Input
Amino acid sequence: MAENLDYAVEGSRCYGNKSANCDKYGRLYDWPTAMGLPSKCNSSTCSNQIQSPHRGICPEGWHLPSQAEWNALPSHVQASSSCSDCGAAKLKAASGWSSCGPSGSGNSYLCEDAYGFSALPGGSGYSDGSFDFAGNYGGWWSASEDNSYHAHYRDMYYYRESVFFSSNLKSGLFSVRCLHDK
Output
C-alpha cells in the first residue's frame, strides 16, 4: 500500500483524537487490533493464531507484513552498501514530515519517495490515551510477535537515514501498511 491504513475499527485512534489527523496520516492501532486478534493478546502470546500471510484488518487480498517481509524492504532501497538499513529518505513521502526536503533542496533531511512508498509520520500513541511525534516519526506494525507483551514493528525518524526494526508493547499505537498477497 502506498498509504497508511485508515480503517475505522474499535481499538483504532486518530492521532490526538482529531479526525483531521486520520485524513492526513491514517489511523493508529494497537497490535491485536491490527492483527484482528482479541485484546487479551496485549498481554499473552498469540503466536498460534497468526497465519502466514496474516490478513488482520487489511482488505481482502492484502496482509500485514511479517518481520521477514519488512526486513527485505531496506535492502531494496538502501542508500549505500555500508548501511544495511539505510534508505529511509527514499521511502518517506515528499511532504508531511516536519523537516524534509527533496534532493538538492539544501535540507539535510531528505524525503525523496523514490519508490512510491510514501511513508508518513503518523506518530505513536499509548494505552493511557497520550500521543507523541506526529510529523516527526512513523512506526508500522508487523505481523510478528516478539513475546507475550511485545510485537515487532518498523519505524523512521525525520532526522535519520535508517529504517529501524524493534519491538514495542502490543498496547502501543502505530500505523499499519498492508502488503498485497502474491
Q: What stands out?
A: The chain has four helices and nine strands. The helical segments are 19-25, 31-35, 67-77, 88-91. Residues 24 and 172 are 20 Å apart (CA to CA). The radius of gyration is 16 Å.
